[in-house]
Amino acid sequence: MDLAAILSKLLIKNGLICAFLIVGITTHIAYTIAGKLNKKPYASALAIFFGLILAYIGGITTGGHKGLASIPMFAGIGFMGGGMLRDFAITATAFGVELKEIKKCGFVGVLALFLGIISSFVVGVILAFLWGYTDVVSLVTIGAGVVTLIVGPVTGTALGASSEVITLSVAAGVVKSVAIMILTPLLANVCGINNPKSAMVYGGLLGSTSGTSAGMAAVNPKLVPYAAMCATFYTGLGCLMCPSILFLATKAIFG
Hints:
- The protein has helices at about 5-15, 15-35, 45-60, 75-80, 85-95, 100-130, 135-145, 150-160, 165-190, 195-205, 210-220, 225-240, 245-255.
- The chain is mostly helical.
């Protein structure tokens, strides 16, 4: 057995370890490039961009629909990017929160959650309508995708949306997440995001756990748990509101 075959077999048998290795190398390259360009706050967005390129290569090479995970030796990426580890990471991040800081947020934080979800949903519905979608299910699914890339598929599945519309909702959520990563370091000082309370309001208004976490990490790593925690609530509340209340409201408007 030649070296390539041995290496391939080793990677297939240790898929999750291989996945961590690939993500680590990709992240290191992104941070190195961003550092040399003096644009370190954008390293996370650059890493995601590289990830999308790898996913495209994996799909084109195999004709599969799982990105790089369609290649057998990289199948562990599919597990690493699954819901279980994602939820574990979100939960682990939330453990860095101090209860006394949460209480300070109070009504403002709750209001930020509702305002953030409704405003994002409305923007998504308007964009979907401008793109030519007129049926309520598609409008709501794409609107939910702008809420977050998780809420979109959950809503689309619940309402019976087509796979194309669900994919589009995920794409809308990814664009929002990357935009948050890029814009947060630029606007943090202007918006006064420099303490736990403002970080929670920020997470509640924008959602997108990955986007807010990466953006806040570039501003102040100590504030990441607060933004991520409210962003997590944002996702959960969005999963409840979009297929129910917001669906009925959209149906009442568009018939």
